[in-house]
Structures
1.
Amino acid sequence: MTESGAIPIAGRAAECPFDPVPELYEAQKDEELRRVTVPSPMLGEFDAVVLARYDDVKSVLADGGLHMGGSMPYQAGNLLSYDGPEHTRLRRMLTGSFTARRARELKPQIEGAVEAALDAVEKAGPGADLVQLFCAPIPTQVICELLGVPYSDREEFQRRTQVALDFDISREEQMRQAAEMEAYMAELVAQHREAPGDNVLGRVVRDFGDQLTDTELAGIGNMLLIAGHETIASTLSAAIALLLRHPDQLAVVRDDPSATEGAVEELLRICAPATILPRQAAGNICVRDREIEEGERVVASVLAANRDLGSHDENLDRLDVRRPPQRHLTFGFGPHQCLGQQLARVELRVALPALFNRFPTLGLTVPHEELDYRTNALVFGVDSLPVTW
Amino acid sequence: MKIAIHRNRCIAVGNCAALAPEVFDQSDEDGTVVVLDAAPPDHRHEQVREAALRCPSSAIALHGETPAHDG
Ligand code: HEM
């Protein structure tokens, strides 16, 4: 057993937030499992086994020896609060709404949202903040329509989402925000109980309403609302910031439509917006032949694992948008693997090339070092991206 | 090439239906895999192999594959 002091919860390096802290690379090489202290006002300071190797992360996520346990604040209806058969039961109510075909069918709508956002950026002129005008509005509009949540309510729920995902905000404040979110969604759910709409919330109420409490329904709605807008907005912001640092790679995304799919997978791999996946050992388990005891907390680093991929390719630290798609863990692995990943892919594939084609000379108005990265949030991204062209 | 599905393994992630939409779809009910073409034509084999490889729960089995063509 190795104790290696404290590391920041997401394990992102201060100098370059796209890179893992050196301790994670060391943990990857270490045959022993490392225990570290993880400071977080949201989760409380805790000791955890940190997993940084691709094969380790993948195997523990797949085999059921770890569970969510008390690793995140509990919320009824949120799939990330459940394990085993209870999780399967709830998840099966939603998987039919997030198929690859449905994601494809949403493409025209996504293209519309992207065009509208690009028009808004153009209208605002140089100095425009892409996060406010591009990264956030696109997924927010898409998930609102998909779910049946009024887009006009976005300011409130966007603000609450930021709080809900910030590891640096205290548990008390988190609880207060969670109560507000629940009250908001409870009202929408009540409307769908009266007259189920032609959207995902309406469908869940229609097909499974008799098996779910109002609290569970509100939890499902909030989970989808939060996961559906903030993850994609953050990924867009991080991917754009990264490409602006690599003009040659940006040019590929801009000029070669046949490269889009692979480029998006590569950006997902490097950005790893859901940087860590917190878990708890359900019983005594083994990783390789090293033991993790029942109840121990575990932090799986997607960021580090994505640069290992179980191979010894040193080049995996480099962004290369022409790389064939890799089996990254950006959407997790195993039973909790991202429900919205096909939708996320379609949105990213439409939005990124469109941005660079509308503004081929896009650049930041501030030096790269001055960007504020959200390194201590559950979802990594950039706070604002002031641009010119 | 013949496609067989381990139905109880499928977790409805949809990679197969995204990678080879002419061969795989997903049920509207619970998102689990639906095979549209269990014996796909040669020009789709590459896509189908990729889909099987990228299935997170190894629910797609391919028969009649010559190992030399794998990967
Ligand atoms: C680029 C964007 C996205 C990324 C990087 C991402 C990442 C992830 C990851 C890593 C997990 C697994 C968490 C864990 O195992 O602890 C997850 C789960 C989930 N995601 Fe996403 N996600 C994205 C977009 C979306 C979208 C657009 C939606 C919904 C519309 C969504 C809905 C969900 C849900 C509901 C879960 C929980 C699934 C479960 O527990 O069974 N995600 N996501």
Note: The domain at 2-388 of chain A is CATH 1.10.630.10 (Cytochrome p450).
2.
Amino acid sequence: MQRIQWFKWLSLVLYGIPMLLVLVFPFIVMVSTSFKTLEEVSQIPPTFIPRNPTLENYREVWNIIPLADHFRNSFLLGVGETFLIMVLGVPAAYALARFRFAGRQPYLIFLLVTQMFPAIVVVLGVFRVVVALGLLNNLAVVATTAASFSLAFCIWLLVGYFSAIPPEIEEAAMMDGDSRLGAMIKMTLPLSWPGLVAVGVFAFMDGWNEFLFSLTFISNDEMMPLTVGLFRFISRFQIQWHHLMTGSLLATIVAVALFMTVQDKLTRGMLAISEK
Amino acid sequence: MSVVVCKELVKRFGATVAVDHVNVEIQDGEFMVFVGPSGCGKTTTLRMIGGLETVTSGDIFIDGVRVNNLAPRHRDIAMVFQNYALYPHYKVFDNIAYPLRLRKRPKAEIEERVNTVARMLGVQHLLDRWPRQLSGGERQRVALGRAIVRNPKLYLMDEPLSNLDAKLRVQMRREIIHLQRNLGTTTIYVTHDQVEAMTMGDRIMVMRAGKVQQIGAPEVLYNHPANLFVAQFIGSPAMNAFKGRLETDDGKIVVATEFGRFPVGDPLVARLKPDRSPTLGAREVICGIRPEDITLDDAPVTPASPQAQVDLVEGLGADAYVSLTIGGTTLIARTPADCPPAENQLVTIHLNPNKLHLFDPITEETLLALP
Ligand SMILES: Nc1ncnc2c1ncn2[C@@H]1O[C@H](COP(=O)(O)OP(=O)(O)OP(=O)(O)O)[C@@H](O)[C@H]1O
Ligand SMILES: [Mg+2]
């Protein structure tokens, strides 16, 4: 008993607290920087609490870049990717989880292999296709390309969730008079709600944080998502730290606020299922 | 009219033949039991009838209509699963109401039907619970309720009682029989428990390795097994079997065994199938006798009477099972428990001459025609 208590404390001090600091530190810096002037940011030694806290950065960021457009675009990318992942991933994962067909196993492995390619390897090729099709500055193209990269991972996740639901429940529904589609929609999907939420959140975050394809495919200011918009504070000669941090903080706050609003609904569904 | 007909039904899973040319007709209102050891293809046959498994070859007819390619929901069959398969996210009421909701029945009718069924099964106080809040027996009742809430052509039940404890199983067994008698709906019931099969079935189909061994009423299977497998699968403890040879003593047919010569009753001799072997005297057989058809005697009748040594006596209240060794053969006899022999005692055995079973030693098919 004594030993375990002692060990717990030691691991908290040696591991927990340093980890916490490492994780939280960037946020603290981000918050603090957003209230500093550029001169104070580059001061050595750095100050932790701004000497002359100012809200000027917030006004400037709003004026320098079309922040509202950026937010809207990021949101659209998140929603678009979630939509694509759900519409394409759920049926694919369902088929992989429920049916035994020739090539099922190789296909699952193939999906995994596609995950091994870094996006940067193909971005140039995809760029040329997009140019050839005249689809630059199109958010739908960015969402589709990004989704095609996270789809494989999401399918793997969903196959796991669907396989965990006993097929007898669907079979019972079909005997009771449901079609297979009806049984899937009324039985397997609600029962794998936690999995669907996890994948949905993952897809949204992936879209919200999308950077590489937006940077490559979008040159029009109004079409850029936050990630690329903020990236423009980093120029070859100077990094506008105060603006960059302010924008990042705003992006984080909005993302967190978004999840807070839907979180209640999502977890309530999750709890309802897991209690059963 | 027979409700269900399977013709040359085959199911293959890759190289495994799960169901091998099954032919069976199930009559209207009948309680048919599929029984056999684990993996013999009972569930697969049932699932093909239900439409949950595709048919490799052969045909299934329900009410004269070929249903091979019909979706389950168009077959008008209700099924009870071994693990109940209740809908975890629906309350008990909604579980039972589900088939009616799918059929778009009016609300009042649903309410009334569900309540009637719940009362019938004694679960009316559980209607507001979630499935996870029910005991195994209660879940099974709800699953039954979901099946009987509408009036399908056919019930399929796949080992519905195997997850219940012994006492509850006996009780539910009776309830299911009552229910089926009252509703009069044709039922196919799968079990690997021969006691369940014997007590519940109007008729029983015994399967082994995908093949039908015998189809018949419980008494027929018990008294006239078609082969050695059925003989030993039905009945507990299993039928004794030993090698023998049909010979003639003074014009009377006897089985000569390693441990003695036993007369074969005249009714049996009359039923002996015309045999391809030239003389009866050379006929090798496997001889079977049920434990209750062996009687034991304390005193040897003649010095020549076969004597067996008692190895073990297992009392079961009314009866006792006596394990005997005679020659190199082990036999089990069933005697009234009030005067069992002592262990290690020598006893004389008598085999009821009219209750012998004779099988071909190679094909293991019975040599006796049905009476
Ligand atoms: N989906 C499947 N894929 C491959 N083989 C299968 C499948 N389902 C059943 N089998 C095989 O078919 C054979 C018959 O199986 P089935 O489930 O019908 O047996 P059963 O008589 O119901 O046995 P039990 O009493 O154990 O339930 C078995 O050898 C089994 O391994
Ligand atoms: Mg089975």
Note: Chain B has two domains: 4-233, 240-359.
